[in-house]
Amino acid sequence: MGETVIRPYESAYAEKVVRLWRASKEEAIGQKEIHSVESHVHFLDEMLPKAYQIHLAFEDQEVVGLVVFNAEELNQLYVAPEHQGKGIGQQLLDFSKAHSGGSLFLYTFEVNRNAQRFYEKNGFVEIGRGYENEENLPDIKYEWRESGTSE
């Protein structure tokens, strides 16, 4: 296993990133992606950069993970299914925490128990449920606050 390197997203990686994202999400929630690959690439290249930083995890020059965040929100965090359990998600989460404003919120699907355990282990606490999404699956809203930060 090579060293994991986190670098800013470049659109040259769009299709590889979208394939990773879709595979990881489908495995996590047991549901096929509802958007076409083309619209997913458009979302990644044109919509997300307007409000979020996008970074990729590389291992041996291969894209193995994705994190999308800003100072307040962790919007997406996905690791290729074949690379899960190696600490890549932890590195991406730690990176987003370090570049946050001292707190982050996120939504995860209620069916995604692995994500819930991961975020709870990393100091996120549940602050709400039942948020709407395109997948029509119940969500859990989580929040993390850096030690010493207040409301």
From TrEMBL:
Residues 4-149 form the N-acetyltransferase domain. It comes from the Bacteria. Keywords: Acyltransferase, Transferase. The keyword Transferase applies. Its EC number is 2.3.-.-. GO terms for molecular function: acyltransferase activity. The keyword Acyltransferase applies. This is GNAT family N-acetyltransferase. The lineage of its organism: Bacteria, Bacillati, Bacillota, Bacilli, Bacillales.
